[in-house]
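Hi, here's the filled form for the chain we discussed.

Project: internal
Contact: R.S.
Residues: 83
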Amino acid sequence: MSIDQFLQKNQLTLIKSFPVLWRAWDCDSEWYLTQNSNGDKILVASDHGVPRIGSPEELEERIEYYKGITKESEEILKELESK
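And the returned structure, exactly as it came back:
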């Protein structure tokens, strides 16, 4: 099912799509902030390319992952700069 079909089936309006990064993972790099007819905002994630309702907790986990990767990358840069 495409994201357009998922939004239509669940009567959701797309507000914004945004990248979600996974290490060596295919098809799940785009998530969507949507809104239903009541005005409630709903996170739509991707599970192996199939849209599904996501949770703020899942997004928080991704953010923590990004922070870890960023920290590791910064440590490598510091190591490169040290003598």
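Let me know if anything looks off before we file it.
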